[in-house]
Amino acid sequence: MELNLFAVRPSHLSLGEARHGSEKNERVELEMKIMKYRSLARNAPDEVTTQRIKCADRRTEQKQREIDE
């Protein structure tokens, strides 16, 4: 019999702990998107593309701030 010591069943987590974990994961994903957008903006071929990417970056930063609140 194999025992997985790192498995956590959702029933053992409180609702607050589960929500906090999912928000943390979402925040990390948003941070990765922001880094990607900034890299793309630095290498964009023209100013219109740069502005579009920066707009997406700002929206993503706003979502991140909403999670932090």
Write up this protein:
With 69 residues, this protein is mainly alpha-helical. The protein has a domain at 21-68. 72% of the residues lie in helices and 0% in strands. It contains two helices and no strands. It has helices at 15-42, 47-68. Helix 1 runs antiparallel to helix 2 (47-68). The longest helix is centred in the middle third of the chain and has 28 residues, at 15-42. The protein is elongated, with a radius of gyration of 18 Å. The mean pLDDT is 82.
Topology:
Layout: H1 15-42, H2 47-68
Helix pairs in contact: 1-2
Descriptive tags:
single chain, 69 residues, 2 helices, elongated, mainly alpha
Task: Summarize the model shown.
The chain has helices spanning 15-42, 47-68. The protein is mainly alpha-helical. Helix 1 packs antiparallel against helix 2 (47-68).
- Number of helical regions: 2
What is the tally of beta strands?
A: 0
| Overall average pLDDT | 82
**What is the element string, with H for helices and E for strands?**
HH
Query: How much of the residues is beta strand, in percent?
Result: under 5%
In helices, the fraction of residues equals over 70%
Largest β-sheet summary: none
Alpha-carbon Rg, integer: 18 Å
Which structural class best describes the helix and strand composition? Answer: mainly alpha
Cα-to-Cα separation, first versus last residue: 44 Å
Give unreliable regions as ranges.
none
- Overall geometry: elongated
